[in-house]
Specification:
Structural class: alpha+beta
Strand content: 5-15%
Number of domains: 1
Number of helices: 10
CATH topology: Glutaredoxin
Largest sheet: 4 strands, mixed
CATH architecture: 3-Layer(aba) Sandwich
Strand order of the largest sheet: 2-1-3-4
Order of helices and strands: EHEHHHHHHHHEEH
Helix content: 40-55%
CATH class: Alpha Beta
Shape: globular
Radius of gyration: 17 Å
């Protein structure tokens, strides 16, 4: 994987469109020979930067209705179970801190998928320690030390720094992929991001 740039996958556990993307990004990168870096961040500060106090899908009723139907279609196409969460968006602080505390853990992809499955397939409260612990256990991870690491000052500051970095990079939503400085926003741009990492989809930056 050293001959191709890594794909940075910037995601929020409460983000709807991050769900179908997160469930396939690791497989796509593996098949393409592209290194994958999981980059959790919080959308709340991003929305606040743009003057929003809530998810745009809650603020705009028509946009929200479209999104929920679109998620049904996308998940059906990918063979994913989808259940509209009874609370949206859900708090994802603890789960994001788990990822920040274990950025190179071999079980990280499985944990990310387990949290998304809990939120969007099982309608579980992913902000609670018990649900996060269950997700860790499902990956064969001892929850107690993993949760303790997530509660450390290091994990907390890492998530804050990562959210600040997302804003600095011009990220305005999730999921966002960054490959060699190029930004690809949305589940529908995931394949293009992987192609760009392999060199197959790189476009010229020349301007007319």
């Amino acid at each position: 994987m050293t001959d191709t740039p890594a794909l940075e996958f910037w995601f929020e556990f409460a983000s709807t469109y991050s769900y179908p993307a997160a469930m396939r990004v690791e497989r796509l990168c593996r098949e393409a020979g592209v290194a994958l870096n999981w980059k959790p961040f919080l959308l709340g500060p991003v929305f606040k930067r743009f003057g929003m106090s809530d998810s745009p899908f809650n603020l705009n009723q028509a946009k929200g209705a479209y999104m929920w139907r679109d998620m049904e279609r996308i998940c059906a196409e990918q063979g994913l179970t989808f259940r509209k969460p009874s609370a949206f968006p859900r708090g994802s602080l603890l789960a994001a801190r788990v990822v920040c505390a274990h950025p190179d853990a071999p079980w990280l992809g499985g944990f990310v998928r387990a949290v998304y499955d809990a939120n969007f397939a099982r309608d579980a409260e992913i902000g609670t320690p018990q649900v996060v612990a269950d997700c860790l256990a499902s990956c064969g991870v001892d929850p107690a030390p993993a949760l303790a690491a997530a509660d450390s000052d290091h994990a907390k500051s890492a998530l804050r720094a990562q959210t600040d970095a997302a804003l600095d990079k011009g990220i305005f939503g999730a999921p966002t992929c960054i490959v060699g400085g190029e930004l690809f926003w949305g589940n529908d741009r995931l394949d293009a991001a992987v192609m760009h990492a392999t060199g197959a989809g790189q476009a010229s930056t020349a301007r007319p």
